[in-house]
Amino acid sequence: MSDLPKQLQDFRNFLWMTWNHLSLPAPTPIQYEIAEWMQHGPRRGVIQGFRGVGKSWICSAFVVHQLLLDPQKNILVVSASKNRADDFSTFTLRIIHEMEILGHLKPTDKQRFSKISFDVGPAQASHAPSVKSLGITSQLTGSRADIIVADDVEVPNNSATQSMRDKLSEQVKEFEAILKPNDGSRILFLGTPQCEDSIYNKMLERDYETRIWPAKKIGVEKSEKIYQGNIAASCIDDDFIGSPTEPTRFSEIDLAEREASYGKSGFAMQFMLDPKLSDLDRYPLKINDLIVMDIDDTTAPEKLVWAQSPENAWDATVPNVGFTGDRFFRPMKVIGDNIPFTGSVLAIDPSGRGKDETSWAVVKMLNGYLYVTDAGGMQGGYDDTVLKVLTMKAKMNNVNVIVVESNFGDGMFVEILKPYLSKIYPVTVEEVRHNIQKEKRIVDTLEPVMNQHKLVIDPKVIRNDYDTAQKYPIESQLKYQLMFQMSRLTREKGALTHDDRLDALSMGVAYWVEQMAQDADIKISERKEEDIQRQLQKFKDSYYKINTNQAPSTTWI
Q1: Which is the CATH superfamily of the domain at 6-213?
Q2: DSSP letters along 482-503, please?
Q3: What whole-number distance in Å separates Cα of residue 60 and Cα of residue 170?
Q4: Region 183-211: what's the mean pLDDT?
Q5: How far apart are CA 271 and CA 51, in angstroms?
Q6: CA count, 13 A, side-chain hemisphere, 431
Q7: Please, are residues 427 and 345 in contact by the beta-carbon 8 Å criterion?
Q8: Closest to 504 (Cα-Cα) out of 360, 356, 290
Q9: Per-residue pLDDT reduced to its tens digit, 202-259
């Protein structure tokens, strides 16, 4: 608009007016910075902001302001889902209808007016609406736009597995075909990374410029080394490293509580937007090292041979929540006959009534290979349902022994469980107590077994692990999954918010590792005794040959 006041041409001023209309506190310095970068940033840009910084609200105001500047623009807003797209349209239309200065932008009776698409009053007739909002899974082909805003297109339920991430990456490539070939045309991504292999990090490979606003200030060295110089200047301060970048909204105590809730790795990703998390060297347990195969209830092959080759890789029928490049592999070769398992153990990690799960894992052993035939977790502490499920798990898997983490309730859980077992499936129950840091204990138990490719998992366990986690809120589903916990665990204390399923698995593996160590010691002793007896027999035979006519005169031969 040629008669638009100069002050209002600056998006930052319009943002203040919008916030004031909505009875919100004045925009924060970071919100002003994001607003300026939105308006004057590159043709292809990525804005990464920490959780709660207000990116989506700023985005709605930005779209309205762009139409205020030029009502003839066509803007496409793409969200993660249809519901999010509808919420965006509803909020944007609310701004247009409520703010007096935007009265002329209200759609007329002859124009498009819906949650999916709408026109603004001054817009000329066009195949493309003024604003169109779609979910990323919607039909994008056929749309045309001067500006494409991808608002939080990456969420946990479309980036959990490798196949999901690949699909999302292909979907956003469609933006290039939709964008009009004008000088002012732009593609803008706004979001918070949801996984280590985030689509926002991949945008850098496609010549997108990135600006990052973390929740805490960092030093110059880390800005260059970890973030490749993409951190907003206001968030870099060597004298105040670790202090909040938005102190008026998020205090140090508030951020500390969020870090405790999310875990170190989760906080680093969603609040510090740390791309270093893609460094796989931090994570010692590699799911590539697993052998994934269908396992019989009672028998298994005498020997398995592992190889990391494409022809042995499982497809998307087994959900993969690991890193880019992670795959599940079948055995390259199965050797020998199928013979009965040496034994079967059910490991249980009890929990209270909080957000943690009472988790279990069934681990069977044969010839040094450990077979995981069942694993999972459920909330409820020591509820009747939980105890019945665990008892049936023991029966269905024909376990020889149950091991229970005794740190919870000083053995109370075992006493509560025993009556259920006595009625349905009497079996030996052993308690184990741990006094070393959990993360180190789990890594030290699982890493050598996995490195030697001795841990075998049934694909049904992986599918069930994925499916049972879907009952939790979207933002928590990954955290409850065994395979996610396995691939994301570090040796750092508090590395994961939830590690119950992984802890139960490590207990089951530890039981057999200890048994195998004991067996090895016994075998060594037995072999030494056999060697001694063999040497004695040789001496006897030799002595009698030399003294054929003499009876032994000693008692030690």
Answers
A1: P-loop containing nucleotide triphosphate hydrolases (3.40.50.300)
A2: HHHHHHH--SSTT--S--HHHH
A3: 25
A4: 86
A5: 6
A6: 14
A7: no
A8: 360
A9: 888 788 999 999 999 999 999 998 888 899 999 999 999 999 999 998 999 999 988 8
- Give tens-digit pLDDT for 443-474: 999 999 999 999 999 999 999 999 999 999 88
Q: Where exactly are the structural domains of the chain?
A: 6-213, 283-515
Q: Which CATH class is domain 283-515?
A: alpha beta
The tokens describing 10, both together, are 């600056």
Token output for 26: 């004045």
Under a CB-based contact definition with an 8 Å cutoff, are residues 456 and 341 in contact? no
Please provide residue 200's backbone torsions phi and psi, each rounded to the nearest 5 degrees: -70, -35
- As beta bridge partners, residue 212 has 48, 231
Q: How far is CA 325 from CA 313, 465, 466, 482, 529, in A?
A: 11, 20, 19, 18, 50
**What are the C-alpha distances in Å from 523 to residues 368, 516, 517?**
14, 10, 10
DSSP-derived letter for residue 175 is: H
What is the per-residue DSSP string for 136-193? TTS--TT--BSEEEEES---GGGTSSHHHHHHHHHHHHTHHHHB---TT-EEEEEE--
447 or 163: whose pLDDT is higher?
447
Residue type, 361: A
Cβ contact 240:217 at 8 Å: yes
Decide if 175 contacts 495 (C-beta within 8 A): no
Greatest C-alpha distance within the chain: 131
Give the residue among 20, 136, 150 at the shortest CA–CA distance from 77. Answer: 150
How far, in Å, CA of 482 to CA of 320, rounded? 11
Tokens representing 239?
A: 């004298």
Residue 557: the pLDDT is 46
**pTM, to two decimals:** 0.67
Angle of helix 11-21 relative to helix 55-69, nearest 10 degrees, comes to 120
